[in-house]
Design a protein that fits this description.
158 residues; mainly alpha; Serine Threonine Protein Phosphatase 5, Tetratricopeptide repeat; 9 helices; 2 domains
């Protein structure tokens, strides 16, 4: 890993991003962590670290960093969406639904929030509610692949 003045957070972020792109995930984690030691409210580092942890299937760590990103910037829609997806992956469906509802309250035009909420509802066996969410997503974005796929799965299961 490159060495530099640890107070230079932009450089640390750039090193983390470059490390991640070249497959050096551990170096990326170290750079993001160093950036957060210098600037704990650096949202880009929180989101980057959360994304890396999610890729490594370290879902608890990823969720914690997305939550921290939301604490720093409550309007960060991506963090709510990703938390919802992670909660869904670990089977914590009620928390996934809450994350998607929070995102919908923040951004009612987020087709992905409705589509992802539909997937969770479908997993829970709440097919009518799921269909409504998929339809809402398609009203917002007629090309939303997640919603289209969800409706396709629902129609196959009838």
């Amino acid at each position: 890993m490159l060495k530099l003045n640890s107070n230079y957070t932009v450089a640390l972020l750039n090193i983390a991003i470059a490390s991640e792109r070249t497959g050096a995930a551990d170096d990326a984690v170290a750079s993001y962590r160093q950036a957060l030691k210098v600037a704990p409210n650096l949202i880009e580092a929180q989101l980057g670290l959360a994304g890396l942890y999610a890729k490594k299937r370290m879902f608890g760590n990823a969720i914690e960093h997305y939550k921290e990103a939301i604490r720093i910037d409550p309007a960060r829609a991506l963090a709510y969406n990703n938390i919802g997806i992670l909660y869904s992956q670990i089977g914590t469906h009620d928390l996934a639904l809450k994350a998607f509802d929070d995102l919908i309250n923040l951004d009612p035009s987020s087709a992905s929030a409705y589509a992802n909420k539909g997937n969770v509802l479908m997993t829970m066996g709440r097919t009518r509610e799921a269909l409504r969410q998929f339809e809402t997503a398609l009203t917002i974005d007629p090309d939303n692949k997640t919603a289209r796929a969800g409706i396709g799965r629902l129609s196959k299961n009838k």
